[in-house]
Amino acid sequence: MAEALLQVRGLTRRFGGLVATDRLDLDIGQGETHAIIGPNGAGKTTLIAQLAGDLRSDAGAVRFAGEDITRLSAPARSLRGLARSFQITSIFPDFTTLDNVALAVQAHAGHSFRFWRPARREPALREPARAILAQVGLAGRADVRAASLAHGEQRQLEIAMALATGPRLLLLDEPVAGMGLDESQRMIRFLASVKGRLTIVLVEHDMDAVFALADRISVLVYGRIIATGTPEAIRANAEVRQAYLGEDAVA
Amino acid sequence: MTSRARPLVLGLGLVALAAVPPVGGLLNQPFYVDLVRRVMIFAIAALSLDLILGYGGMVSFGHAAYLGIGAYAVGILAHHGIHNGVLQWSLAIAASMAVALVIGAVSIRTSGVYFIMITLAFTQMLYYLGISIEEYGGDDGMRLAVRSQFPGPLDLQNGTVFYYVVLAILLLFLVLAHRLIAARFGMVIRAARSNEARTRAIGFSPYRYKLMAFTLAGAMCGLAGALLVNHTEYLTPEFMHWTRSGEIMFMVILGGMGTLVGPVLGAFAFLLLENLLSGWTAHWQIIFGPLLILVVLYAKRGLFGLLPGGGPRDG
Questions:
Q1: Is residue A242 a contact partner of residue A39, using CB atoms and an 8 Å limit?
Q2: In this complex, do A90 and B198 lie within 8 Å of one another by their Cβ atoms?
Q3: CB of A75 within 8 A of CB of B204?
Q4: Lower Cβ count inside 10 Å, N or C end of chain B?
Q5: Which residues in chain A are contacts of B185 at CB distance < 8 A?
Q6: Minimal Cα–Cα distance from B172 to chain A, Å?
Q7: CB distance B88 to B77 below 8 Å
Q8: How many Cβ pairs closer than 8 A exist between chain A and B?
Q9: Running DSSP on this structure, what letter comes out for residue A2?
Q10: CB-CB under 8 Å, A83 with B201
Q11: pLDDT for the residue numbered B206
Q12: B145 vs A249, B20, B230, B240, CA distance in Å?
């Protein structure tokens, strides 16, 4: 079998006495959409932060596309094609929607020690950004300040910024959190449309989203993965049902 | 500002600045030429601070250091008989750049209160260094016997010529800063101010860009220092006193952080008010302090925000 795109071995993170990530192993295959579910406090966001390089690991290794990236910073990982979205919306509120995405394009378009030419008039930055806004359905909101976007739109912008970095792997931390039913349906449809072209690691509480999108699911409890399998296998797994899924989710 | 009001207001301001020497001459009030020249020198210092404070989010509480280094570079060369302005000003810029590079390299690794304290500590070190070097006047400072000498008609001994040199440098820096903040470089430092975690997540390493901004701002302020020592014709370690850093910061906040015109307005308001109030009473700070507090409380965008259409900040 070919090496997985993302290989996690023995990953550990402690906060004082609390072991948030406990000798965790995980393989994400090329093109796979892999959901990570688990109760609150299971360590999902910690894991995402470790994978993205925002949080140092105490032990273990992360390999991405055949390269050991364990010690690489978040920007270095981004440049290698690992993009993340944040659970709590993290955008540049004072810039326009288009600026936000164009910044993500710019970060991957060579160094930015350029002091004279207005970045807002560079088609090389603006056009790819516009295309991505159109893709996520924000084309009509390009010139609005990001701060004044609705919550659901800001979530879309999160994804657009991640996509604008041209990633090979998307780490999505609860992309439909706080969204209304309509909005989350639209987001799920959108993610379904990029699924397969991109490898996706999806942390999500919303079971509709998870079962609609995931090829495989891993269940995280107390920093450990207690089960990994297809959605059907996870639904049927007694240990998972006990630890996490309510009976109504299984029905 | 609306797109139409902005060039009009800026144009009027420029005409007013250019008209100071002839009008001052007509009214036989050379004092005002002197005052506005001083204001413009501080406007350059404030503008340079605003680049890192307003646009870069780096609350440097030691910006007077570069004013001092620029002044000492000119003063020390003059002390040794070198009056060539090109040499003096080049040294002023190079020395303040080098010091800013070192201070920035250390302090940009920190943030928040630590950043403020480290920049303050470095500047205090330089201040005490200035006091301790007897060769260059120590505590008392030293006189600048001759202003920086340039070839041709650029005779700084002529107050009017010097005035227009300062005005030209201020305009040059306004144009440079205007380009810089809108270019890719400016977008990165503004993004890092707005949301550093996000900036890193999309692939920027903000440190090197912030350090570059810090170094450029130091260089700019160093030239302001070279101008200031020529203006006052003496220098003392007081140029680097921490209250001076505070004054420059107040000009930026008063005028409007994160705007280009704001620091210029702030320098005017600060120094003109200081001048006016200190003419009335020796305890002018008692009036000045509350005024500044009112501006900070009620004019969030500073004086610039009070201009027609000052508007919300753009990144």
A1: no
A2: yes
A3: yes
A4: N
A5: 112-115
A6: 13
A7: yes
A8: 104
A9: P
A10: yes
A11: 97
A12: 86, 26, 10, 21
Q: Identify the residue whose tokens are 């680049």.
A: B51
* Dihedral pair phi/psi, residue A138, rounded to 5°: -115, 15
Assigned token pair, B172: 């040059």
ipTM of the complex in this document: 0.93
Say if residue A37's pLDDT is above 60: yes
Across A145-158, average pLDDT: 95
* The pLDDT of residue B307: 75
Q: Is A66 left (phi over 0), alpha (psi -120 to 50) or beta?
A: left
* Residue position matching structure tokens 């273990």: A60
Both tokens of B45, joined, read 């210092």
Using a CB–CB cutoff of 8 Å, tell me whether A45 touches chain B. Answer: no
Cβ contact, residue pair A99, B183, below 8 Å? no
The 10s digit of each residue's pLDDT in A164-214 is 999 999 999 999 988 989 999 999 999 999 998 999 999 998 888 999 999
Three-state secondary structure call for residue A198: strand
Using a 10 angstrom Cβ sphere, with 0-12 exposed, 13-18 middle and 19 or more buried, the burial of residue B155 is middle
Segment A225-248, tens digit of pLDDT = 999 999 999 988 888 877 765 555
What DSSP state is assigned to residue A226?
A: E
- CATH superfamily of the A1-81+201-251 domain: P-loop containing nucleotide triphosphate hydrolases (3.40.50.300)
Global pTM value: 0.94
Q: Is the separation of the CB atoms in A164 and A132 below 8 Å?
A: yes
The domain locations on chain A are 1-81+201-251
Residue A170 at interface with chain B, using a CB cutoff of 8 Å: no
The DSSP H or E segment spanning B119 is helix B112-132
